[in-house]
Amino acid sequence: MLQNKANPTINKSTGLPRKRFYRARAHSNPLSDSHFPVPLSPNHVEYSLHYPQLFPLADRTDTCKKIGFADIGCGFGGLLISLSILFPETLMIGMELRDKVTEYVKERILGLRVANPGQYQNVSVVRTNSMKYIPNYFEKGQLLKMFFLFPDPHFKEKNHRRRVISPHLLDEYAYVLQVGGIIYTITDVEELGEWMKSCLQNHPMFEPLSVAELEADPVVKLLSTATEEGQKVARNGGQTFQAVYRRITPAS
């Protein structure tokens, strides 16, 4: 507690980081070169660093337990925190390019672990460029769910290649998702919503969830409520556009 009093970035009453000290630009250029460590392969991901209580040894021996959820461009971690409670047995990770935002999520998770012993041990975050390094983190058919919530719309046509949902990137996502795995997308930009839906609809390895499946999936309800962006849209009375698709085996 004395440490928290001396540290203005930490809220003294909650022990959690204060968001205003970690503000950054809303988006970063995913095509620029950033400098951060990247594992050589999924076998080199340091599980003991991300989930120390579950993997206390630097040598990961439990090869059956692997990351199941990936939140791409996780922002301030609202969805991850909600998912951690909803799926306590599933390992999950947020992938964020902005360094200050990544640091905030790290501190937030650490604070929640201290305040809630035994909880939030299954969630972590890493600073990386998911448009370049997805195969470095996940094996073929490893992931159960991938999330793309309120991504950068890159309005100019010349910048559409920077969009995190695109035909060629969906090939990578299909590779790391297991058959039956689900991609969740949401945006408040109608044109981007149509773009993401069209990319998924036209890809041979994805099919949309039915209305009944969407209504029964508890995760769908979090898409518009768990994140700072979603809450801002709701406060302003804005509209959102979702596309939720399942990884399938293409027809031969």
Automatic annotation (TrEMBL):
PROSITE patterns: SAM_MT_TRMB. CDD domains: AdoMet_MTases (cd02440). Its main location: nucleus. Pfam families: Methyltransf_4 (PF02390). It catalyses: guanosine(46) in tRNA + S-adenosyl-L-methionine = N(7)-methylguanosine(46) in tRNA + S-adenosyl-L-homocysteine. It comes from the Eukaryota. One of its GO terms (molecular function) is tRNA (guanine(46)-N7)-methyltransferase activity. It is found in: Nucleus. Keywords: Methyltransferase, Nucleus, RNA-binding, S-adenosyl-L-methionine, Transferase, tRNA processing, tRNA-binding. S-adenosyl-L-methionine binds at residues 73, 96-97, 129-130, 149, 227-229. One of its GO terms (cellular component) is nucleus. Pathway: tRNA modification; N(7)-methylguanine-tRNA biosynthesis. It is an enzyme of class 2 (transferase). Its EC number is 2.1.1.33. The active site is at 152. InterPro entries: SAM-dependent_MTases_sf, Trm8_euk, tRNA_(Gua-N-7)_MeTrfase_Trmb. PANTHER family: 3-DEOXY-D-MANNO-OCTULOSONIC-ACID TRANSFERASE/TRNA GUANINE-N 7 - -METHYLTRANSFERASE, TRNA (GUANINE-N(7)-)-METHYLTRANSFERASE. Catalyzes the formation of N(7)-methylguanine at position 46 (m7G46) in tRNA. Belongs to the class I-like SAM-binding methyltransferase superfamily. TrmB family. NCBIfam families: tRNA (guanosine(46)-N7)-methyltransferase TrmB. This is tRNA (guanine-N(7)-)-methyltransferase. It comes from Hibiscus syriacus.
